[in-house]
Amino acid sequence: MQRKKILVVDDEQEVVIQLTRILKRENYEVASTTKGEEVLNLDLNTKPDLIILDMVLPDMLGGEISQKLSENPALKDIPIIFLTGLNTKEDEEILKEKAGNYRLLAKPTTREELLEAISKVIPSAKE
Q1: CATH number (domain holding residue 51)
Q2: 10 Å Cβ neighbour count for 90?
Q3: How does pLDDT run across 35-85, given as a tens digit for each residue?
Q4: Domain hosting residue 104, numbered range
Q5: Which of 21, 22, 57, 79 could crosslink 121 through cysteines, CB 3.0-4.6 Å?
Q6: How far is CA 107 from CA 77, 87, 103, in A?
């Protein structure tokens, strides 16, 4: 069976490195970018099974990216897990409203939290 592909999108290089390391150890195929615009220009032949997306990027907000992906029939079904550095309960509630059914993970996230969130979004990830 083909490995699941995950796209990590975060402007903090340390976060990208940490998540990539965890995911590769779990046998995922990993690609990464620090720019929201690159997510919107995905090559459909290498479409990921999941996007792990920072809520705030220098060129675009995660919510904007998810909205634009949802408007593209070829990309709208890609699940997204949002990463956020915001940590107040009020911030969390606002994000949940805006994120809809997407998963939210607070930064920094642990390996266990990350893998649990992924297993809920793409349950067959380990098959």
Answers
A1: 3.40.50.2300
A2: 8
A3: 989 888 887 778 999 999 998 888 998 889 988 998 988 888 899 998 887
A4: 5-126
A5: 79
A6: 25, 8, 13
